[in-house]
Amino acid sequence: QLQFVESGGGLVQPGGSLRLSCVVSGSIEDEEDYYGLGWFRQAPGREPEAVSCTTLDEENTHYAASVKGRFTISRDSAKNTVDLQMNELNPVDTAIYFCTAVDTRLLGRICLLARHPRYDARGQGTQVTVSS
Predict the structure, then answer these.
(1) How far is CA 32 from the centre of its chain?
(2) Residue 80: Cβ within 10 Å count
């Protein structure tokens, strides 16, 4: 089973930046299955929203329209981490951010902004608050 531990959240003023990090450990049961890694966020009273995803080799990434151009996802396979650099933050970005496995296509070469149907573990999340 995959396990995730997020860090890096905090309080930041509008226009500021934060870098989130997620340590990924464990493995999937089926070595012939595929998954990517992604960041989601959940604001109070709202459903979780996909923010960004990456394939394990970082060859393919996707972003929600609301964060495109401001957020950048990256993966360090040596450290088993997936980071999210967030720039130009605004109050609507306030949420708990968590990382998890995401679904893929084409034998893992394309990541989707959707949670994996078989590997649904997620971390506790890290709170990001954007406020003046």
Answers:
(1) 23
(2) 13
DSSP one-letter code for 65: T
Along the 132 residues of the chain, how does pLDDT read in single tens digits?
899 999 999 999 999 999 999 999 998 877 788 999 999 999 999 999 999 999 999 999 999 999 999 999 999 989 999 999 999 999 999 999 999 999 999 999 999 999 999 999 999 999 999 999
Tell me the C-alpha to C-alpha distance, in Å, between residue 68 and each of 5, 19, 20, 23: 24, 15, 16, 23
Distances (CA, A) of 114 to 10, 54, 89, 105: 25, 11, 23, 11
| Angstrom distance (rounded) from CA 19 to CA 22 | 10
CA pair distance 48, 34, nearest whole angstrom: 22
